[in-house]
Amino acid sequence: MNTWAVIVGVAIVTFALRASFILFANPHRFPHRFRQALLLVPPAVLAAIVAPGLAMPAGALDLTLANPRWIAGIVAIAVAARWRNPLAPIAAGMPALWLLQWAMG
Amino acid sequence: MLVGTIPFGLVAGVASIASGLTATQGMALSMLSFSGIAQLIVCQLVAANSPVPVAILAGSVVSLRFVMYSAAVSPHVAHLDRRTRAIIAFLMVDQSFAMTTRHFSAPGDTTHREWHTLGACATFYVSWQIAVGAGIALGAQVPSNWSLDFAVVLTFIALLVPAVRTRADLGAAIVASAIALVAAGLPYRLALVAASVCGIAAGMSIEARHKR
Questions:
Q1: What's the sign of the alpha-carbon dihedral B105, B111, B116, B121?
Q2: Span B85-95, mean pLDDT?
Q3: CB contact under 8 A, A7 and B1
Q4: For B21-49, what is the mean pLDDT?
Q5: I want to staple B59 with a disulfide (CB 3.0 to 4.6 A). Which of A3, A10, A32, A85 is the partner?
């Protein structure tokens, strides 16, 4: 039953956050500093998700050659910076990871 | 745009089964929250038997970026009635946010533009649910050496890199990455919260210094 409570709770909160300005508030009435902070949310949150996914695949920091994920991740970041197509990092990163895994046996 | 989310949806579906949710729960989570990363975080915390408020808090923190999207979209939809705005809000994700702002800022006929946006977002919603459903149906049958979960990280790289446009953005991203790694030992994914807050603070201090 706890699982259902989490599902409903997260559903309500995600909708409330999406609806915040669209339904309830006028963004032009908010202080400048607050809007500045909002603009920084995507780079900060996305980076905080990506970094552990690359550098600690097994739960501990691993930046050695035995961890192919951070290397494949660097490839994907370079590709994303060069080509703005949102598919490019996936198209480059997955084969890079498979190739590295295969090379390491 | 659509194609990139298929592996992500599959992963979200597989993850919900792998973390012990029933097929119904996995599908309900996906249809109600409609956010891949929130779904994955919830799965991780349910699997770890976290307390309910902690799981909801973690799911909310990763959804904070929707507030920014909401602020960006709101001037374009202010003229619409409440119900239409509620539907646009419900259907908003990272990718549809990009579609929405592009639709609304394009020159030309401005009448009925919201229907184009709604159509695009609804298509996205249905495709996402099909991908998640396929993931749930496959369950644990996807071989782990395919490393399909890495596609999720790559999806976020595809969103992160274009989001870094200024020096402050870059500072926020670097500080958030560092804190996320250093604080990784914190329970209940609190590292994500700490890293996000520190990253935003770092970005704001860079902006303040730049202006002087």
A1: positive
A2: 87
A3: no
A4: 90
A5: A10
Residues B94 and B189 in one domain: no
Nearest CA in chain B to A101: B145
B140 reaches A (C-beta below 8 A): no
Report the C-alpha gap between B144 and A58 in whole angstroms.
14
In this structure, the dihedral spanned by the alpha carbons of residues A36, A40, A41 and A46, taken in order and rounded to 10 degrees, is 170
Nearest to B5 by CA among A53, A81, A90: A90
Q: Which of B59, B159, B203 sits opposite A46 (nearest CB)?
A: B159
Q: Are residues A49 and A94 in the same domain?
A: yes
Expressed as residue numbers, the domain containing A66 is 42-103
How does residue A96 score in pLDDT terms, banded at 50, 70 and 90? Answer: very high
CA distance linking residue A55 with residue A68, whole number of Å: 9
Over 90: is that where the pLDDT of B107 sits? no
Q: How many CB atoms lie within 10 A of CB B143?
A: 8
Residue A90 and residue A69 share a domain: yes
Pair A95, A46 in one domain: yes
Listed in sequence order, the DSSP H helices in chain B are: 2-18, 23-33, 36-47, 52-61, 65-77, 82-90, 94-105, 113-138, 150-163, 167-182, 190-211
E strand intervals along A1-105: none
Say whether both A11 and A59 belong to one domain.
no
**Same domain flag for B126 and B212:** no
Check whether residue A4 and residue A46 sit in a common domain: no
pTM above 0.90, yes or no: no
A37 domain-assigned = no
pLDDT at position B99: 57
Token duo for residue B23? 């097929």
Residue A36 within any structural domain of the chain = no
CB pair distance less than 8 Å for B207 and A36: yes
pLDDT digits (tens, 9 = 90+) for A24-53: 866 667 778 877 887 888 889 889 989 998
